[in-house]
């Protein structure tokens, strides 16, 4: 089978590639802080809720006429005011995510080339930004074809890390449980799961129909959950409470220079992959929902994270935790509201909808709202 040209494989690859990225390197730190059992439970619960949210959005995308992204779909069912709010929340969240990718890209390239100064990290981060800006200009069609090859390499290297880390694993590192760190885990896990929403309209274009879209979404989420569970198990069992914010730093002293080179290469591939897809998705949102010209949308995608990065924003875990708990969860609540409005409008009388039980909507929105309130209270206390 020609995987690069198989529509279903490309769609699943786009889903995985839109989610698995720099967030995976923050997960081991959060799991180590709370205990692997607490982290795994949070991953399973939030992964299940995120799967429900993605199925809701899949219904919206599949049965709403027109060529839209998030703001357009929210406007169709909740009004233009909420659509603009959704676009602002999405844009700010993605800008925060892109800034986190710059932090990670700068750190991993510094590891790869053996430099440790903050100046070199900044220069490498800007190199990552410039590279992705050039690649993303070609659009999703080019990126989604490359994504299958990138994911193949990514999965191979993740397996390499897991196998390497298992040689220095200590099961006792998995045992502690600290429930007071649950809010930290919540934000980091949700950030690591975020990205699927932006991928679904792109997946619809790749598939060319709605029939296989829910299946592709669930297959992609299954892969993501498995990757996260295995990766965090391997890293936390090896480094325990010494796990670093970027995961790889703490493994290098245990596994040596060869691991440092290969692991850093993995991280760079991951950052470039997710950065490219996320930036294209945001650029498309500006084009389709704001009606901006391609060049203006492209500039609006990359300039804000560059400014934030050059301004000195460097708290990786704090940033991804806030983006996941507040901004991404806020977008999720808007999607739930739009989904319920769509069902009430009678769309599902004319189309074959998934028709999730209403309790699913309450569960998803309730957990996200509680997480938002607790996070805001924590950050601004």
Verbal overview:
The chain has helices at residues 7-19, 23-34, 36-63, 70-78, 80-113, 118-136, 140-166, 182-193, 196-207, 213-239, 248-290, 294-310, 316-344, 347-350, 358-379. By secondary structure, it is mainly alpha-helical. It has one domain: Up-down Bundle (Amino acid/polyamine transporter I). Helix 1 packs antiparallel against helix 9 and helix 5 (80-113) packs antiparallel against helix 13. It is globular, with a radius of gyration of 20 Å. The N and C termini lie far apart (56 Å). The mean pLDDT is 84.
Shape: globular
Q: What proportion of the residues is helical, as a percent range?
A: over 70%
Number of helices: 15
Number of domains: 1
Named CATH topology: Amino acid/polyamine transporter I
Secondary-structure blueprint of this entry?
Layout: H1 7-19, H2 23-34, H3 36-63, H4 70-78, H5 80-113, H6 118-136, H7 140-166, H8 182-193, H9 196-207, H10 213-239, H11 248-290, H12 294-310, H13 316-344, H14 347-350, H15 358-379
Question: What descriptive keywords fit this protein?
Answer:
381 residues, single chain, Amino acid/polyamine transporter I, mainly alpha
Give a brief description.
This protein has 381 residues and is mostly helical. It is 81% helix and 0% strand.
